[in-house]
């Protein structure tokens, strides 16, 4: 039951699910597409990744209404080679396209040892870690690569060529949830800057540059013609290029510099891409695989002050399952407006 809380309204995850589904339905999104996106939004809120949760929902609704997303698109699956799966999202959300391809990807990887899934002509897929975690839950190693509209220039350049181009990795663990690493090629995901702008908060110095190439703490300046800062300089830019080749070039999707923005209503469908690789580890790892992985991860987790990737999100899951989340009243009112339309 929703209640008033400091800083906003407290919602249970069940209420987040209901609100998300109603808002998308009110924006013309079909039931199959809606359920796929709603599951992703709820999962993001459960893990404390609010920038890909309800904060992103008004943009999804707007883009479905203006036709930047086809909210009723039917993705189609093809098999161009024995180890390859291709899904055309048909200008719709990436989520239902990925949902269509993942079971085929997993089955093929189990039979052959390795397989790849290319998703093309799609839209923002939310948290990449959400998708690779589901592959790892099938007992498979998973890699995910996603391109996004250009917002990051190469090192030494000034014109954006890459998106924040996130990638994620997941490995199954006996008796535990998969270990998931999820990061963008930039210092921070662009959605975090959007979230700061929504909240009226400055961004940390070093996240972005303004349109004149100067470091800024103003999220509006970063988003209005500014650029993201590559993580680790050359390393982040190189990572963004690798992701671009896999998620855009290999899949046949729009290059980041040709994709319309995820943040506004201008332009047609972004037609970005996602690329996933699944590997069956057991034929390679041998009988001592479980203890060896446990030893590796234990060497990290047992050190004072160290933590495994995903620990914070796991803790957030426990907290939100018990306490729910707090949503700013203005954001909640805006989403309710879409739900009632």
Overall shape: it is globular
Order of helices and strands: EEHHHEEHEHEEEHEEHEHEHHHEH
CATH-level-2 architecture of the domain at 1-66 and 311-341: Orthogonal Bundle
DSSP summary: helix tally? 12
Low-confidence stretches: none
What's the pLDDT, averaged over the residues?
93
Number of E-type strands: 13
Sheet bearing the most strands, described? 7 strands, mixed
Q: How would you briefly describe this protein structure?
A:
The protein is built from twelve helices and 13 strands. It has about 350 residues and is of the alpha+beta class.
Secondary structure: elements and pairs:
Elements: E1 3-5, E2 8-11, H1 13-26, H2 31-46, H3 57-66, E3 76-81, E4 84-88, H4 94-112, E5 114-122, H5 128-136, E6 141-146, E7 167-173, E8 176-183, H6 190-199, E9 208-209, E10 215-216, H7 219-223, E11 227-228, H8 234-249, E12 272-279, H9 282-285, H10 289-301, H11 311-323, E13 325-327, H12 329-340
Parallel strand pairs: 4-5
Antiparallel strand pairs: 1-2, 2-13, 3-4, 5-12, 6-7, 6-12, 7-8, 9-10, 9-11
Helix pairs in contact: 1-2, 1-3, 1-12
Structure characterization notes:
- The model has no long low-confidence stretch (mean pLDDT 93).
- Helix 1 (13-26) packs parallel to helix 3.
- Strand 1 (3-5) and strand 2 (8-11) form a beta hairpin.
- The protein has helices at residues 13-26, 31-46, 57-66, 94-112, 128-136, 190-199, 219-223, 234-249, 282-285, 289-301, 311-323, 329-340, and strands at 3-5, 8-11, 76-81, 84-88, 114-122, 141-146, 167-173, 176-183, 208-209, 215-216, 227-228, 272-279, 325-327.
- A 7-stranded mixed sheet has the order 3-4-5-12-6-7-8, with helices on both faces. Strands 1-2-13 form a 3-stranded antiparallel sheet. Strands 10-9-11 form a 3-stranded antiparallel sheet.
- Helices cover 41% and strands 19% of the residues.
């Amino acid at each position: 039951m929703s209640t008033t809380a400091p800083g906003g309204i407290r919602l249970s995850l069940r209420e987040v699910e209901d609100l998300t589904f109603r808002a998308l339905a009110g924006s013309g999104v079909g039931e199959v597409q809606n359920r796929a996106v709603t599951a992703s939004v709820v999962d993001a809120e459960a893990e404390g990744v609010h920038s890909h949760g309800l904060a992103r929902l008004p943009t999804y609704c707007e883009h479905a209404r203006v036709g930047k997303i086809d909210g009723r698109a039917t993705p189609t699956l093809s098999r161009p080679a024995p180890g390859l799966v291709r899904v055309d999202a048909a200008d719709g959300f990436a989520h239902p396209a990925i949902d269509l391809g993942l079971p085929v990807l997993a089955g093929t990887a189990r039979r052959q040892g390795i397989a790849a899934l290319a998703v093309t002509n799609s839209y923002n897929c939310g948290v990449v870690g959400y998708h690779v975690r589901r592959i790892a839950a099938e007992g498979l190693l998973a890699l995910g690569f996603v391109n996004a509209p250009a917002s990051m220039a190469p090192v030494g350049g000034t014109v954006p060529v890459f998106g924040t181009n996130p990638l994620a990795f997941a490995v199954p663990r006996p008796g535990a949830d998969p270990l998931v690493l999820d990061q963008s090629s930039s210092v921070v995901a662009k959605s975090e800057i959007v979230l700061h702008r929504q909240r009226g908060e400055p961004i940390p110095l070093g996240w972005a540059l303004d349109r004149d190439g100067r470091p800024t703490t103003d999220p509006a300046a970063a988003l209005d013609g500014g650029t993201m800062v590559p993580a680790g300089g050359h390393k982040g830019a190189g990572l963004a290029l690798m992701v671009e080749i896999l998620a855009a070039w290999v899949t046949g999707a729009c290059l980041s510099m040709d994709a319309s923005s995820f943040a506004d209503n201008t332009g047609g469908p972004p037609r970005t891409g996602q690329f996933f690789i699944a590997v069956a580890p057991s034929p390679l790892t041998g009988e001592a695989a479980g203890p060896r992985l446990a030893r590796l991860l234990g060497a990290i987790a047992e050190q004072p002050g160290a933590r495994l990737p995903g620990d914070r999100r796991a803790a957030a899951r426990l907290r939100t399952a018990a306490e729910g989340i707090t949503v700013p009243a203005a954001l909640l009112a805006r989403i309710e407006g879409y739900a009632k339309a």
